[in-house]
Design a protein that fits this description.
CATH class of the largest domain: Alpha Beta
Bound molecules: L-homoserine
Structural class: alpha+beta
Strand content: 15-25%
Largest sheet: 7 strands, mixed
Number of strands: 11
Amino acid sequence: MKTIKAFAPATIANFNVGYDVLGVALSHIGDEVELAFNGKQENRIVAMINGEHLPVEADKNCCSVVVRKMQEHLGVFSGVDIRITKGFASGSGLGSSSASSAAAAFAYNELTGRPFTRKELVAFAAEGERVACGSAHVDNVAPSVLGGIVLAKGKETNDLIELPIIENLYAVTLFPDIKINTSDSRKILKDHIPLKTASKQVGLMGAFVSSLYDKDLQRFSSSLQDLMIEPMRSLLIPEFYEMKTAAMAHHALAFGISGSGPSVFAVAEGEKKAQGILTVLREVYRPAAIKIQTHVHALGKKNGAKIINRDYALH
Ligand code: HSE
């Protein structure tokens, strides 16, 4: 029976300027999903490593749901046994369910001879997001599948825009180990935004996108501001503004909430500045008696889902 294993990375969704439409792939952490044909018509979760609290029923687990959706689309139900290894905490705001969903979609596509393009896999991976957190937004799954920075102007394959990246950028992520689940973090958001705020945010988004094409770090930094969501969600994150002030005082180009939180991120030019920001963020949290997990990631293209092991030859 053919076996294959894929990796897909963690992601920062929203990236301050693009609530539900923008996401960035991270290089350092992600999930692994191994698939093996099982000779049946059903899919089974046979191992869940580092995610003991996550569902393993085929209709509730994001990986088996993604595989099922692909089988339904193909009209061929070649069942698989699924082994999931979680590489970072779920509920962190770093796209945990998306990384598993993206890896599952990528692995099943390879195992079945690549019937779908990489971009087409995003819609299937989004179905994993729907079952995990109640909404099929693609701002985590799109960069997890495709890598780099992705703007999703809608949910169709043609709506996925892979943006350029400025060289030598690093992201620092800090996960304070407190529980905020995505659906709760979405419920606290107000439905209406004042027109003036929306207008300013649209301007910031446009300026941000243009900064990537023009490779203009100053514009990149001044445009990466979240006027809509941060004022509401920052209340859920201990020491948020202390961290933001400290990071911005130590050469951060931007600071914000990763996805629905509680993780936060900073962006820096060069690894040395990123390490410096990491040090000051840890200092802010030292008195807080909350466990934290931190990482430094190189940002770049081509760091999306990939095959890390296969037990059969490609022809
Ligand atoms: N865009 C989503 C949110 C990302 O902010 O709720 C979390 O999955």
